[in-house]
Amino acid sequence: MFDFPHRRYNPLTREWILVSPHRAKRPWQGQVEKSAPPYLPEYDPTCYLCPGNERAGGIKNPVYSGTYVFDNDFAALLPDAAPADPETHPLFVAKAETGICRVICFSPRHDLTLPQLSLDETEGVINTWADQTADLFQHPDIVYVQIFENKGAVMGCSNPHSHSQIWSQSRIPTEPAKELSSQKEYFTVYGKSLLLDYMHEEQKRSERVVATNEYFTAVVPFWAVWPFEILIMTHRAVPNLPALTQPERWALADILQRITTRYDNLFETSFPYSMGFHQAPNDGNDHPEWVLHVHFYPPLLRSASVRKFMVGYEMLGMPQRDITPESAAARLRNLPEIHYTLK
Question: Could you tell me which CATH class the domain 36-82+94-335 is placed in?
Answer without folding.
Answer: alpha beta
